[in-house]
């Protein structure tokens, strides 16, 4: 059986010291746009995927089937390695095993699992509760063992900072490293000093969440790398600017009764982006 080639590529980039800047994608259009731009990895955001699929908040409402289906669709249209949000693993240890194998079969390079109680809540929002660290340790061990390909990466996220403080979050980070996580994700640090401390105290590859309108200061990639981070995700940037652009465009349409003269930027190469030239070539060959 062939290995996980996209995961192997992501591991190679990390091993050679390349900083992984990963935009947040959530549907087929965002995936194709980001894939065309040469990023080293993409990030499937749970917030964006839930919002675009269900029109609902990221509050544990999207199921395993919803999310693995979205991951499979995205992997089918991109060449870039995908880091994918898998919430809590969607249940207990047997659910975690199924989640890892399902995401891996979908083509995901790195699978993110967090230590929240179910139903989970979106990071940076109030009221998040975490399970005992020992429970998450077992999930990570199961996740690492469940992989059919050694290249597939497990990202362990802790949400302990907000309710329990940075010391507890870092204690958990060390436990999750020892349990076999490939990447550590300490969610919601609140200052640059906290980001620096995390970078000093975590030895495995480290992910920073540069979310829009969140608790964590948004820091440029060069400084994150200097502090010891290896990956930065931008989960909210794409859907927030897309939503605002739609609001502006439709406001213009409502006011003017036409789209002529609109100044909101429009993507001029949509047919090419979505693969229509391949359809037309196919029809020339096969359709009389």
UniProtKB/TrEMBL annotation:
Stated name of the protein: Carboxyvinyl-carboxyphosphonate phosphorylmutase
GO molecular function: oxo-acid-lyase activity
Domain of life of the native organism: Bacteria
InterPro entries: ICL/PEPM (IPR039556), Pyrv/PenolPyrv_kinase-like_dom (IPR015813), Pyrv_kinase-like_dom_sf (IPR040442)
Pfam families: PEP_mutase (PF13714)
Gene3D superfamilies noted in UniProt: Phosphoenolpyruvate-binding domains
Coiled-coil stretches: none
